[in-house]
Design a protein that fits this description.
Blueprint (H helix, E strand, L loop, with lengths): L24 H7 L13 H8 L5 H5 L5 E3 L15 E14 L5 E7 L4 E6 L4 H6 L5 E7 L1 E3 L2 E5 L2 E4 L9 E3 L8 H14 L18 H9 L7 H5 L4 H26 L12 H9 L6 H14 L6 E6 L5 H14 L3 E5 L3 H20 L4 E5 L5 H13 L2 E6 L13 E6 L7 H12 L11 E6 L5 H7 L4 E5 L9 E7 L3 H13 L3 E5 L7 H19 L5 E4 L5 H12 L5 E4 L12 E6 L7 H8 L9 E7 L9 H12 L3 H19 L17 H17 L1 H12 L4 H4 L1
Parallel strand pairs: 4-7, 10-15, 10-16, 11-13, 11-14, 12-13, 14-15, 17-22, 18-20, 18-21, 19-20, 21-22
Antiparallel strand pairs: 1-9, 2-3, 2-5, 3-4, 5-8, 6-7
The chain binds adenosine-5'-diphosphate and magnesium ion.
Length: 726
């Protein structure tokens, strides 16, 4: 295994944009971030939050449309509201108390003359408590729930009563912690005012009836008083049609540009009479390839034999055996006399690949005077220098590592194939850098591009793949290796935690191992750590002596992480408590039980990936999804849909389809493909006609109006434009 010294670990993925929770001005005032710059960055907290949302240029703000609208134009009587209504009332505070059971909360009673309502706040600030003192008149907005205990609102927005009511609907933008709605609203308004919105569609090319862009944007950002909610939400409205058309056109144009650019590039042809390493590896494998692996291997071999750069996505469910396919492709490039690089997003994953591939390939390479090199940021300088020298001389036929593989100091002698595992974890720039490694590096053939094989464990439904990856060839491993037993998935309420401990004991008694995944606590690694540490201690106490319970957390030094991983792999530790650092790629076949705590907080694909860590051996495996209802005593609707999907199917494609249904294509892909052009407004199914229009217009526009086409793509994809060259 690689030797590693301690160093900063790869950063945790950025928190996802969180849906606005209807938090009104009352809360926002209290949460308003300090407008001071982070030392060294020169960016204020607000600017950083805006950046996280992709809001940098004026045009980005202009195109950042409300995700919904709130009706603050009317005050209603409590007595007229029904369960589930979102309502705005004005009422007198008649009671206010902080209770501590079942947990600390502020309970306020208000009376508007027609009825009373209880307001509950679990997280509250002194300023809010003051605002809600008995005797105050307040304006309250939120969802009314009418149980038999009377009306209630959880965390409603509160402001002083009596201020003027807006005339029109209020836009609500999707935001993240640290960026208050009014601040975002203001930023969007000024961005829109400054943005250049001149026409990019050539005369006569706009789809029938669509509005011009400025009119469409103003209409949607600033609804006029007479515009009803239904009108704004109607996506067949000409304002929405214009945005969808523009967006689809930008996507088509960018893919067309990418395809044309690539047709002009050349790659080394890896057609080689000699296939000895490839064949020997195949021989040495302890198993026969699945039909899917053979088919996909054939597709890759065909690509590698051409002098056009391969640009292929290999998708296959967790455990479908992508690593072998990658290793065989690497062997082909080595047979042809070239080098291959394999890059993984985390050190743990890279180390696993390294361990596996060294085992398979090193004896075969050694006979040829070649070797596998290991490169990572945490390496000691001496070791890294030695590895770099081997890469430069060409002795390292296969180079495995993390981002360190694309470091400027690493120079390949003859790189012909770059393989990127869990490709969605990498940014566009990193992918480009890996390809750039060959540009001058293929000996005697400057300007050649390497072949690129990207691997992903989250399959993308076919229609989506065709539209998003039109410039990419897709291979799919749709068959799992034989001998796997299906994983039984159980949903278990948090209150039945004890039963789960019993289950763990039962598995341990059979000599099996167990994963316990702790929830990600957004934006607080310190809390993650505390939580995971407590869980580890709790489990260690419950399971008693003789059971090794390890802890894996992203904050741990790399060397420590690796030591824990190795101990678990070798069964010196029987239970592994971890935050989601084990999410990708970890392969310990003896592990047969996966417990995921607060499963309701995880995304569907993430849950599926986690579950894929078990069921890798012959033993019957299970996945327990522990869930806890939220403060309102229920699990949110989408969380419930996710848990249900998990319980009902373990087919990665079906999971992907459901995930797509639950989240919609924009978010679904966004979480996977940082940097790819995403559709924010258009829907590939619902807007098929507009897509046809865009497909027809794009080539013509590129031929006849190149400048407009570039401007259009820049407007929509802007900072993501690098993708076009990828
Ligand atoms: P993933 O596609 O998730 O990266 P891996 O490549 O890690 O999957 O493979 C999962 C496990 O299945 C590994 O232990 C691997 O050695 C094994 N495996 C791969 N292909 C086969 C096969 N054809 N038959 C049996 N086992 C296989
Ligand atoms: Mg893998």
């Amino acid at each position: 295994m690689p030797v590693a010294a301690s160093s900063p670990s790869p950063r945790k993925p950025k928190p996802k944009a969180k849906a606005d929770t209807g938090t009104g001005p009352g809360l926002e005032a209290a949460q308003k971030p300090a407008a001071k710059a982070e030392p060294g960055t020169g960016l204020s907290a607000v600017q950083r939050a805006l950046r996280k949302l992709g809001l940098v240029r004026d045009i980005d703000f202009a195109l950042y449309l409300p995700m919904r609208y709130e009706d603050e134009t009317r005050i209603v009587r409590l007595a007229d509201t029904r369960d589930g209504d979102t309502a705005q009332i004005e009422a007198l505070v008649t009671g206010s108390e902080v209770v501590f059971r079942p947990r600390r909360q502020l309970i306020v009673t208000v009376d508007d003359g027609s009825d009373t309502c209880q307001l509950r706040f679990f997280n509250f600030y002194p300023s809010q408590q003051k605002q809600l003192e008995v005797g105050a008149r307040v304006r309250v907005r939120g969802e009314v729930r009418g149980g038999f205990l009377g009306r209630q609102m959880m965390h409603p927005a509160v402001k002083a009563a009596g201020t003027e009511l807006p005339e029109a609907l209020t836009p609500v933008y999707s935001t993240i912690a640290g960026l208050a709605q009014p601040v975002l609203r203001r930023e969007v308004r000024s961005g829109l005012a400054r943005a250049q919105l001149d026409e990019t569609l050539p005369a006569g090319e706009a789809p029938h009836g669509a509005w011009d862009l400025r009119r469409a944007l103003s209409f949607l950002h600033y609804p006029a008083p007479d515009v009803a909610l239904a009108t704004l939400e109607d996506h067949s409205h000409p304002a929405w049609q214009r945005l969808k058309a523009d967006e689809l056109l930008a996507q088509q144009l960018s893919q067309l540009m990418a395809r044309r650019a690539r047709a002009a590039q050349r790659a080394p042809s890896l057609q080689s009479a000699k296939t000895s390493l490839h064949d020997e590896l195949l021989e040495a494998l302890p198993f026969a390839l699945t039909g899917a692996q053979q088919r996909v291997g054939g597709e890759i071999t065909r690509d590698l034999g051409r002098d056009l750069p391969m640009h292929r996505l290999l998708q296959g469910d967790v455990g479908s055996g992508k690593t072998v396919v990658a290793a065989l492709a690497a062997a082909r490039s080595i047979d042809a006399g070239y080098q291959c690089a394999l890059m993984a997003p985390t050190e743990i994953l890279a180390a696993q690949h390294f361990g596996k591939l060294v085992g398979w390939l090193d004896p075969l390479l050694a006979e040829r005077g070649l070797r596998v090199a290991w490169l990572t940021g945490s390496q000691k300088k001496k070791q890294r220098d030695e590895m770099q020298a081997a890469v430069e001389s060409g002795e390292a036929a296969l180079v495995i590592g993390t981002h360190a593989v694309i470091s400027e100091k690493v120079r390949f002698r003859r790189l012909a194939l770059a393989i990127i595992d869990e490709q969605h974890r990498f940014g566009v720039a990193q992918r480009l850098a890996l390809r750039g490694k060959a540009a001058g590096g293929v000996e005697g053939s400057a300007g050649l591009e390497p072949h690129l094989l990207m691997m992903s464990a989250t399959p993308i439904p076919r229609t989506l793949a065709m539209s998003y990856y039109a410039d990419l060839d897709v291979s799919t491993l749709d068959e799992l290796p034989p001998g796997r037993t299906p994983i039984v998935t159980k949903l278990v309420g948090e209150q039945r935690r004890d039963e789960v401990v019993h289950r763990i004991r039962a598995q341990l008694a059979q000599g099996r191992q167990v994963y316990w995944v702790c929830p990600l606590i957004e934006e607080s690694e310190a809390m993650d750590l505390r939580n995971a540490t407590e869980t580890r201690d709790e489990l260690a106490a419950a399971l008693g002596e003789g059971v090794g319970v390890g802890l894996l957390h992203s904050r741990m030094p790399t060397a420590e992480k690796q030591a824990v991983m190795e101990a678990f792999t070798a069964n010196r530790l029987q239970v592994l408590v971890s935050t989601t650092v084990i999410e990708v790629g970890v392969d310990v076949p003896n592990a047969s039980l996966m417990v995921i705590e607060h499963a309701e907080r995880f995304g569907l694909s993430q849950l599926h990936q986690l579950r894929g860590r078990v069921g890798r051996g012959a033993a019957a495996s299970a996945c327990v999804l522990l869930y806890a209802p939220n403060e309102g005593g229920r699990v949110g609707e989408t969380a419930r849909a996710r848990l249900k999907a998990m319980a009902e199917t373990s087919d990665g494609f079906e999971i992907a389809r459901r995930d797509l249904d639950i989240r919609g294509p924009g978010e679904f892909l966004g979480a996977r493909q940082s940097g790819a052009p995403l559709l924010r407004f258009a829907d590939l199914d619902a807007d098929a006609l507009l897509l046809d229009w865009a497909r027809e217009v794009a080539p013509r526009m590129l031929d006849r109006h190149r400048a407009l086409a570039e401007k259009h793509v820049d407007r929509w994809l802007g900072s993501k434009a690098e993708y076009l060259k990828a």
